[in-house]
Amino acid sequence: MLIPCPLCGPRDRREFHPRGGAEYLDRPDADAPAQAWDALLHLRTNPAGRTQEVWQHECCGAWLEVDRCTVTHRVFGARLVSEARDAG
Amino acid sequence: MRYSGLRVLAEGLRGNRGWRPAWDRPDPQDAYDIVIIGGGGHGLSTAYYLARNHGLRNIAVLEKGYLGSGNIGRNTTIVRANYLLPGNSEFYSHSLRLWEGLEADLNYNVMHSQRGLINLFHSDGQRDAFARRGNAMINQGDDAILLDRDGVRDHLPYLDFDNIRFPVYGGLLHPRGGTARHDAVAWGYARAASRLGVHLIENCEVTGIDVAGGRVTGVQTSRGAIRAKKVAMVVAGRSSQVAAMADLTLPIESHVLQAFVTEGLKPCIDHVVSFGMGHFYISQSDKGGLVFGGDIDFYPSYAARGGLHMAEHVMEAAMTLMPMIGRARVLRSWGGIMDMSPDGSPIIDRTPVDGLYVNCGWNYGGFKAVPASGWCLAHLMATEESHEVARRYRLDRFATGHLLDEEGTGSQHNLH
Amino acid sequence: MRVDGRGLIDRGRPVRFRFDGRDVTGYAGDTVASALVADGERLVGRSFKYHRPRGILTVGPEEPNALLEVLEPGGQVTPNTRATVQEVFDGLEVRSQNRWPSLRHDLMAVNDRFAAFLGAGFYYKTFMWPRRFWEGLYEPLIRRAAGLGRLSGKHDEAPYERAFAHADLLVIGAGPAGLMAALAAGRAGADVILAEADSRPGGRLLAEDEAVDGLPGPDWVAGVMAELRAMPNVRVMLRTTITGAYDGGQWGALERVGLHRAPAPDLPRECFWRITAPRAILAAGALERPVAFPDNDRPGVMLASAVRGYLHRFGAVAGRKVAVFGAHDDAHRTARDLVAAGVTVTAVIDPREDAPEGDGYRTRAGAVVIGTRGRLGLTGVRVREGSSEFWVEADVLAVAGGWNPSVHLTCHMGARPVWDADAVAFLPPGPDAPGAVPGLEAAASAWDGRAVVRVLAADPLEMKRTVAAALSVMRHGMALPRVWQI
Ligand SMILES: Cc1cc2nc3c(=O)[nH]c(=O)nc-3n(C[C@H](O)[C@H](O)[C@H](O)COP(=O)(O)OP(=O)(O)OC[C@H]3O[C@@H](n4cnc5c(N)ncnc54)[C@H](O)[C@@H]3O)c2cc1C
Ligand SMILES: [Zn+2]
C-alpha cells in the first residue's frame, strides 16, 4: 500500500502509523460527559468500504487524512489534517 | 450415527456406502425461538450448548457463506489457558477443561493435542513477567513450568539460543496448551448441534435486524425474513456491520491477521512455540505443515488477505528464532478479519436492544475460546444471567473503566 | 534414454550427480528430472498417504510427484525440492523422501491395502478412546506417517539476499507472450522487468517443435532476448518466480540465485525481491491437465506436454514404447513428434469417434484408457474400444487433458477465475471484476498483443505516443504459433 504524503510524495505503508477513523479528530470539549469520551476513545463505525482515516507519516511527522477503501485497500488520496480541517 | 473405530472398520468392509452427511441442511422456517447470526466456531458452539445444556430446540444458525468459512477455518489453532488477569484466567481455564472433554462430548475427533506450549523470554524483565504469569496460572488451577535456558534446550534444541539480539533466556511451559484441528471443531459442533435438532442454514446472509419497541423481533436475510424471540450476533470481523443493523456502534475495529503454512515435513516441531521479542508463533500440523503467524497488519481492513510488510516481518522473526526453518518452503498464506477490541479482551453480553446479544472482540485468540464462549453465551441467553466465568466481558466496560488489558499496552485500538 | 540430435542441453559438458546414492550423469542444461528421465529412472517418489509408487509427471514447477531432498556436505538438507526445477551441477546429491526403508521397498505401502479403512477424514471418526492415547500413541503415529521431506534441524547459515526494484511494467513469464510484451513495452521506452521462473527464457517454445519467422523456436527466442538485453530500460530476471500480488503495485519475487550451483560461502541461495510496478502483464502460460482413470498415477504416466518437453528441450524420452491418451489434438502432436524422433508409439487412444488418423502410429478412435499395469513402472495400458477390451504395451503413457491457463496471480486479491464453457477452462477474471489485481492484465496467449497495448495506453507516463511502436511488435506477434491451446 502506498500513501501519497502531501509533503514527501508516495511512500510505503511501513512509514505510516494508522490512528483510526477521521471522526477521531472531533474531540469533545474538555467538560463533555464521559460518554462522549468513551465514544471518541473506544467506539468505531468501522466501515467496510471507502472511508477517511487519520494516519501519521512518521518520517516527516505530518498528520494526514487518508481517503482509503478498507475492502480493496485502494488509496484515493491524502491531505494534511490541518488542510482537511480548513476545508471543513 | 455414532462415530468409532469399529464403525470405520465396519463401513470399510461394506464399501463405505453407509456414511450419512454429518449434518442436515434444512430450509429456514418462518420463525425460531433463537437465531444465531454467524456459523463460525462461536456461533455453532453457542447453538450446541443452548440445546445440550438448556434443553432448547427451536434454534437456527444463519451463516452467510458455508459453515466454517470464516476465522474458525483460518486460525493457527493454538489452544491455551495462560492468562494473567482475573476475568480472563477463569474463562480460559473453563474453556480448556471443555476442550479436554470435547471429543467424547461431540463424538468427533477434533484432534485436540496437548503437546505443550512454550512462551520464550529473552531478558530478565521478561523472565519476571512470565514467572508472575505462571504463578497466576497455577493459582487458577492450570499448569505452568518456568524453564531455564537448558530446560528450553531439552525441548527445543533447534532454536538459536545465542542470537545476538534476542538470546533465549528461558521459557514458560504450559504443558496442557497445544493445538486442535480447526475445521474439525466447526464440523464437530455442527454435527453435534444438528443431532440435537438445531437448524444450520448456510448461504443465508443476515441483511437487517428487526426491532420493535426496543425489542428484537427477527432478522431479514438473503433467504427471507425470519422471526425470532432472541437473536445473537456472533460474526467476528463483521460485528460492526451487523450491529449497525440494530443502530448499535461497537468498540470494535476490524483488522486482518495473516497465517502461513509450509509444505509437508516430517515431525520437527513438537510443541507450540512463541517468540518473546516479536510476534511469532508456530506449531506443526498433524499433516506435517509448519503453521505460523505474527501480528495483525495494523490498519482497518476487510480484505481477507495480508500485506507483504507483515509477511516479511513474520519470516524474519522465524529465521531469527529458529534458523532451520530457512529450508522449509511456504505453501500458502491467507488472512482473516479479526474483531479487535480496545483492551484486547472479548465481549459476551446483552445489548441495549432487548433480546439482542453480542459476542465479539476475540482479537487474536478466539479459537481456544470456542467452547467456553458458546457455553457462556448460551447460559446468558437461556438464563438471562451472565455465566460466572464471563462476568467481566461486559459491553459497557470501556465506558465504566473496568478494562481487561491483559497485555498492559493501554486500552486504545491502535495500541494492540 | 537420450534421443540423438534433440535438445538444448550441452552434450559437451557432462555433469555427475547422485540420486539415492547412485551416480547419474546428465549434461549442462539438464534438470534432475530430465537427467533421470534420460537415465531410465521412472520411480522417484511415493504418494503422501498410501505410499503408492510415483514417477515424474510434468516438466515444470507444477510437479506433484518428483519431490526430493537436496543434501549438502555439512549435513544440511533442503526437502521437497522439485526435480523438474532443480538444475544439475557436479556434486549435487539428491534423495527420495517419505519412504522407508527404500524407495523400491516402502513398508508404508501397506496403507494402500487398507485404503478402505483410511478414507478421506477417517481420523475425525476414530482415535477418540481412550482420551490419553491421542498424544501418547495415535498422534505420534499419524505425524510420523504424514509429511514429506525432512528438515535437518541444523541452523540454516547460508546467505540470503533481499532486494528492491522498480519498473513501469512487470512482465510475468518469458514465453512468447511475455517476450512480445516486454519487447513492445521496451521499444516504447517503458522501464520493464521481465521475470521468468525458468533458468532459460522461451516458455513452451523450448518444449515444442515450432518455428517462428522461419526460425526454430529457441533461435527466435535468442534473437528477441538479444534485443531485450541490449535495451537499457529492460531488465531480465531469470530463475525468478513472482510469488504474490500486493497492494500498491507491489509484487513479491523469489530469485534462485545459487541453487543451481554448488554452495559457496558468499553465494546467496535465494534473493527475495520486492518489485514495485504499477502495471503488470501476466504471461505465465498454462498447465496441462491430467486425465482421470484408474491407476493413472503409475510411474511412466506423464503429461503429454512433459513428454514433448523432455524430448525437445532435453533430448530425453522416458521409455521405448509410448502410448498416448487424450481427446485433444496435442495427443497427436505428441505422437508425431515422437515418431519423428524415432520413438515407437504403440497407440494413440482418442475418445473422439472422428479422431485423426495417425501417420506412423495407430489411432484408436472412440477408445478410452480404463486401467494400467506395472506397480513400480508402467508396462501396459488397458484400453476399451467399443465392446472390446485389450492391453496396449507401453512403458510411457502420455496423457493430454487440455490446458488450464495459469490464472493464479489474477486471483490474489479475491477475484475468482471465470469458467468459460467454450474454452472448457477457467479464464482470468476481467480487470474490472471485484477483487481484481489493479494494473494486472492477463495476456491470454502468445498472439494476444492487445493486452500490451491496453496497458501502455492506460499508462500514466504518457506513453500513448509510443503505442505505435508497440503495435508494430504486435503485428509481428500475430505470426506467432499458438504454443498451447485450450
Ligand atoms: C490468521 C488467524 C490466526 C488465528 N490464530 C488463533 C490461534 O492460534 N488461537 C486462537 O485462539 N485464536 C486464533 N485466531 C482467532 C480465532 O480464529 C477467532 O477469534 C475466532 O475464530 C472467531 O470466532 P468465530 O469462529 O465464530 O468466527 P468466524 O469463523 O469468522 O465466524 C463468523 C461467521 O459469521 C458469518 N457472518 C458474518 N456476517 C454475517 C451475516 N451478515 N449473516 C450471516 N453470517 C454472517 C461469517 O461468514 C463467519 O462464518 C486466529 C485468527 C486468524 C484470522
Ligand atoms: Zn511525509
TrEMBL record, chain A:
Kindly list the biological process annotations in GO that this record carries.
tetrahydrofolate metabolic process
Q: Which GO terms describe its molecular function?
A: sarcosine oxidase activity
Q: Which InterPro entries match?
A: SoxD (IPR006279), SoxD_sf (IPR038561)
UniProt superkingdom:
Bacteria
| High-level lineage | Bacteria, Pseudomonadati, Pseudomonadota, Alphaproteobacteria, Rhodobacterales
Coiled-coil-forming residues are none
Q: What is this protein called?
A: Sarcosine oxidase subunit delta
Range of residues in the leader sequence: none
What is the source species?
Answer: Rhodobaculum claviforme
Pfam families membership: SoxD (PF04267)
UniProtKB/TrEMBL annotation, chain B:
Any matching Pfam family: DAO
Origin species, per record, is Rhodobaculum claviforme
Superkingdom field: Bacteria
Stated family: Belongs to the SoxB family.
Protein name as annotated: Sarcosine oxidase subunit beta
- Supply the InterPro entries for this chain: FAD-dep_OxRdtase, FAD/NAD-bd_sf, Rhodanese-like_dom, SoxB
GO molecular function per UniProt: nucleotide binding; sarcosine oxidase activity
Please provide, in alphabetical order, the Gene Ontology terms of the cellular component aspect for this entry.
cytoplasm
* Catalyzed reaction equations: sarcosine + O2 + H2O = formaldehyde + glycine + H2O2; sarcosine + (6S)-5,6,7,8-tetrahydrofolate + O2 = (6R)-5,10-methylene-5,6,7,8-tetrahydrofolate + glycine + H2O2
Please tell me which top-level EC class this enzyme sits in. Answer: oxidoreductase
What cofactors does this protein use?
A: FAD; FMN
Compartmental location: Cytoplasm
Query: Chief subcellular site?
Result: cytoplasm
Single biological process term from Gene Ontology: tetrahydrofolate metabolic process
Q: What is its EC number?
A: 1.5.3.24
PROSITE patterns named among the record's database cross-references: RHODANESE_3
From TrEMBL, chain C:
Which keywords annotate this record?
A: Oxidoreductase
Indicate whether Oxidoreductase appears among the record's keywords.
yes
Task: Tell me which SUPFAM superfamilies the record gives.
Answer: FAD/NAD(P)-binding domain, Nucleotide-binding domain
> Which top-rank group of organisms is this from?
Bacteria
User: What is a GO molecular function of this protein?
Assistant: oxidoreductase activity
Q: Which residues form a coiled coil?
A: none
Instruction: Please identify the protein, giving its name as recorded.
Output: FAD-dependent oxidoreductase
